[in-house]
Amino acid sequence: MAQHRLRDAIDSLPDGFALFDADDRVIIHNAGFLDAYSSKIKSDVTGQTFEETVRTFVENTMPEAQDPAFDREAWIAQRMARHRNPPREPFEVKWGGDRWMRVSEQRTSHGGYVGIWTDVTEIKRIGQRLQDAINALSDGFALFDAEDRLIVCNEAFRSQSALHGGDDLVGQTMEQILRAFAASDVTDTRARTDLEGWIAQRLQHHRNPQAEPYEQVLTNGRILHISENRTSDGGIVGIWTDVTALKQAERRLEDAIKSLNEGFVLIDKDGRFAAYNERFLQLYPKTAPHVAVGAPSTRCCAKVPARASIPA
């Protein structure tokens, strides 16, 4: 009765399940295990070694194995090495074609193995569509988990961080990424003069995101605005925007304003100074001490005519 209940419980699992003895032979398995290794193997593989099962799968099912350039023995050897020395965490294996399997294997107290095989093909497809969408963004994008390790990023982030496709960033902490960035040919100008001070400041802003973007000036002259926010699970999401062209346009505008022979002042919708030139300060010397970008204009400009420019 107990054996029958165990069999029913195993067969009811949606995932593949198999238990192996100390000689790596199948003691018990379910239909999900057979499905994981395709319907072309026998309906009952009890007593068969895991390597025999893997070889049958590779020889009869894997599309890649039909390519003469595919190294069957290397794939089998790699799979067997993981099976005999299972990692603590589940791992994903490309299962042939576009199919993916998440495998969780553990040693038993009797020297055998127990394994669970979960088809994650659809999850991988969704993940790939998400990655494609993220890569389509012109801005850099990065998502970190609650331990500050990178979960996902796009190519724009790699490019703006001067860390390109060959660098395996996923799983690295923000500090590790910053240190690699500081050692690259193009980096933050402050990293060149005070590495530890810059890293401390950057991590402070990263871990305690502010409403205003963090401005990063690179050694190649580019300027980035970094906007970061906390996620509901304690992670951090960030957007890296190249504002070099905008900053250059702002400087050209500032130069144009400074070159005017007339006084000029610009006040934003909140009544604060947004821009002004030296001629304006000369025309209103009593107002001058109170004029600064971001300062309220209400006190000092009550008597200034409401005009964009004031004739000299």
The level-1 CATH class of the largest domain:
Alpha Beta
* CATH topology assignment of the largest domain: Beta-Lactamase
Average pLDDT reading: 88
Largest sheet: 5 strands, antiparallel
User: Would you tell me the structural class of the helices and strands?
Assistant: alpha+beta
Oligomer: single chain
Rg from Cα: 31 Å
- Major sheet strand order: 2-1-5-4-3
Number of strands: 13
CATH architecture of the largest domain: 2-Layer Sandwich
Query: So what's the overall shape?
Result: elongated
The share of residues in extended strands comes to 15-25%
N- to C-terminal distance: 103 Å
Counting structural domains, the number is 3
What does this structure look like?
- By secondary structure, the protein is α+β, with helices and mostly antiparallel strands.
- It folds into three domains: 2-121, PAS domain (Beta-Lactamase), CATH 3.30.450.20; 137-242, PAS domain (Beta-Lactamase, 2-Layer Sandwich), CATH 3.30.450; 247-310, no CATH class.
- The chain contains eleven helices and 13 strands.
- The chain has helices spanning 2-11, 31-36, 50-60, 72-84, 121-135, 155-160, 174-182, 189-193, 195-207, 244-258, 278-283; strands at 16-20, 26-29, 91-94, 100-107, 113-119, 140-144, 150-153, 214-217, 223-230, 236-242, 263-267, 273-276, 309-310.
- The strands form three sheets. A five-stranded antiparallel beta sheet has the order 2-1-5-4-3. Strands 7-6-10-9-8 form a five-stranded antiparallel beta sheet. Strands 12-11-13 form a three-stranded antiparallel beta sheet.
- The longest helix is centred in the middle third of the chain and has 15 residues, at 121-135.
- The protein is elongated.
